Amino acid sequence: MGSGPLILLIVFVFFAVFGFAIDAQSLPDRYMVDGVEEDDVLNIRREPNTSSDKIGELGPYTLNVEVLYDVDGWGQVPTGEGWGWVSMAYLEPNPWPANEAPRPLICSGTEPFWTFAMYPRGATYNALADERGSQPQTILSETVAKNGFLIRAREGPTLIRTLLVDGRMCSDGMSDRPFGMSASLFTEAPDGNYVQTGCCTLQSN
Q1: pTM
Q2: 158 backbone φψ class: left, alpha, beta (φ>0; ψ -120 to 50)
Q3: Which of 65, 70, 133, 73 is CA-nearest to residue 104?
């Protein structure tokens, strides 16, 4: 099967499986911090109440805050190795882009470790086992659904990567951090095709 029919098959599967997904598989809600003074921060609490321990913070102009759940005015947000809760009173909706994938979008997986990252100024792929280090990716196309993205990229003259992102909850298997998006990365390479799986986030740290 050539690359053209293969991509059509991937697109068909994407919309057949995820185009009619239930609400539990929708993308996480996207917010930005609003109403916090320049010299202040939005506290991340261990539990959804003001008396709970502070475990982190968000700056006054933080964008791309992923809220996985909301309970009584509190939103659950992922942190470096786990999760916490922030007051929704200081979050303003930051809608998803209409016709393209958001930037930043960082997808990664383990066994072996890999990362596919998209930023406003470009995209890269990096695999721990690859001595070449981070490799630039040329985005060929982006297809958007209500609860996911299909991104096709080229690396060099002969390698094609197709990234499928959907709204299923995901775990990296190494921490307690929940991720609001799952990923499958299909690579077409001259020496053999392969698939990698992982999780995605909008946060670059």
Answers
A1: 0.85
A2: alpha
A3: 65
Distance CA 119, CA 53 (A): 33
pLDDT digits (tens, 9 = 90+) for 90-141: 999 999 999 999 999 999 999 889 999 999 999 999 998 888 889 999 999 9
Q: Write out the two tokens for 50.
A: 């003001």
Query: How far is the C-alpha of 163 from the C-alpha of 151, rounded, in Å?
Result: 5
- What backbone torsions phi and psi does residue 88 show, to the nearest 5 degrees? -70, -15
CA angle 107, 113, 116 (to 5 degrees): 30
| Owner of token pair 């919309």 | 15
- Across the beta sheet with 74-78, what order do the strands follow? 54-58, 42-45, 83-87, 74-78, 69-71
Please name which of 150, 158, 98, 155 lies closest in space to residue 123, comparing C-alpha atoms: 155
Dihedral sign (CA 58, 63, 68, 73): positive
CA 92 to chain CA centroid, nearest Å: 19
Q: Which two tokens stand for residue 70?
A: 């909301």
